[in-house]
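Box S1 | Example of a co-folding query
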Amino acid sequence: MHVIFMGPQGVGKGTQATQVAGTLGLVHLSTGDLFRAAIKSGSELGSTLKTYLDAGDLVPDELTLRIVDARLDEIAASAPGGLVPGALFDGFPRTPAQAEGLDAMLETRGESVAVVVELTAPRDVLIERLAGRRVCPSCGATYHVTYNPPADGIHCDNCGTAVEQRKDDTPDAIERRLSLYDEQTAPLLEYYRGQGKLESVDGDRDVEAVSDDIVRVITGTTAST
Ligand code: AMP
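Box S1 (continued) | Returned holo structure for adenosine monophosphate
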């Protein structure tokens, strides 16, 4: 069973994906996390990716698809029987070409997307969440300056590293990423609605209420298919 999380940046996809993947035993596959890990590794691929991420631009489709395909192979290689366990895609696909590419790469494996969960929240809520977001550059934990600050306000509660603002969480980059979502990613909702796979969940509520709803929607949908 493969699940896609869709929604604009700041809607809580990452937080919810971690929680829901754990509850349902899915592998969390976040392209943003994959790209940041490649950048951190200092590889040549990482430095190519960095130019796109720093500018808040989308990584080209062909490169994104290649990286996701390789990750699915890695996941399958480490799974019993070589089968890809259910994946929870977070931040991918982001363009129509990526959605078609994903369908094709799952089809060659005899698999398909079961359900697409769209998380929603008003734009002013998204901007406030993104502008206040802080991340730990070491372990990846996320915080918010107002709603979820580190205990001492500066250092990560898990590993003690000073938290920082992502380069793409500045006002200009936020505006750019939200516009890109409207232009390029929102039309994907229609693609999946047309396939009868789209479910919407209100993401402007507390974390548990949202994740309960998501799990209910996913298990309800997959039980009836
Ligand atoms: P995220 O962590 O999902 O907010 O992604 C951070 C950045 O990674 C985005 O602003 C893009 O530059 C890049 N990125 C992540 N996922 C994709 C994708 N599916 N296609 C293209 N670029 C992506």
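The chain has one domain: 2-122+172-223. The first helix runs from residue 13 to 24.
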